[in-house]
Amino acid sequence: MAMQIDTNYDHFRTDYSERVKEKQAAERAEEAKGTEAQRAGKSSQPQDEYISSEKSEQKPSGLYRAGHDAKGNRKIFFEDPKAGGKSQGQPAEKCVADTHKVDGEIKRLKEEKQQLEQQIQSASGDEEIRRKLEKKLAQVENELSRKDNDTYRRQNASVSV
C-alpha cells in the first residue's frame, strides 16, 4: 500500500504575517477616512471652547489674586464673592501653636541628665550609689528620647486662636 503526500500548501491561508498586514492596511484606510471627515469640519467628537464670563452670564464661583502677606512673601489670595468684599484677602482668624511648655520640659530633662552624669563621675568609689544613678539616668534618657522630637511637640502644643 503506497501513500502519497502533497507538499503544496499554497491553497491554505495560514500565514500570520499576511493576515496582520491586511488588518493594518484596513485600519489605516479607516483612519484616513476619519481625518478627511475632520478636515471637512464634520468632527464627530465635541471640541472644548473658551467662553468668557461676560458672554456666559454666569458669575465666577471665586476669584484669586496675587499679593503679599504680612512678611512680604508672595501669596495667592482667594476673594470669596459670598463674603461681599469683607475679607479683602486677609485671613479671618490667626492660629498660633505654642510649644514653650514642651520645650521647657525637654530643657529640664536635659539639665537633669547632665546633673546625673556629673554625679555618676563624682561617685566613682561607691558602686551601689553609682548603679542607682545609672538606673535613674537611663530612665531620664528614655523619657528624653520619647519627648525630644517634632511629633511630641506638635501633639502637646497649646493652640490659641
Secondary structure blueprint with pairings:
Layout (H helix, E strand, L loop, with lengths): L15 H24 L13 H4 L6 E6 L5 E6 L16 E3 L1 H23 L4 H21 L2 H6 L2 E3 L1
Antiparallel strand pairs: 1-2, 3-4
Helix pairs in contact: 3-4
> How many whole angstroms does the radius of gyration measure?
40 Å
Helical content (DSSP H or I, runs of 4+) = 40-55%
Uncertain spans = none
How much of the sequence lies in strands comes to 5-15%
Major β-sheet strand ordering: 1-2
> Helices and strands: which structural class?
mainly alpha
- What overall form do the CA principal axes indicate? flat
User: What is the CA–CA distance across the termini?
Assistant: 106 Å
Order of helices and strands: HHEEEHHHE
Tell how many strands the DSSP assignment holds. 4
Average residue pLDDT = 79
Largest sheet composition = 2 strands, antiparallel
Per DSSP, the total helix count is: 5
Describe the structure.
There is one protein chain. With about 160 residues, this protein is mainly alpha-helical. Helices cover about 50% and strands about 10% of the residues. The chain is built from five helices and four strands. It has helices at about 15-40, 55, 100-120, 125-145, 150-155, and strands spanning about 65-70, 75-80, 95-100, 160. Strands 1-2 form a two-stranded antiparallel ribbon. Strands 3-4 form a two-stranded antiparallel ribbon. Strand 1 (about 65-70) and strand 2 form a beta hairpin. Helix 3 packs antiparallel against helix 4 (about 125-145). It is flat. The N and C termini lie far apart (about 105 Å).
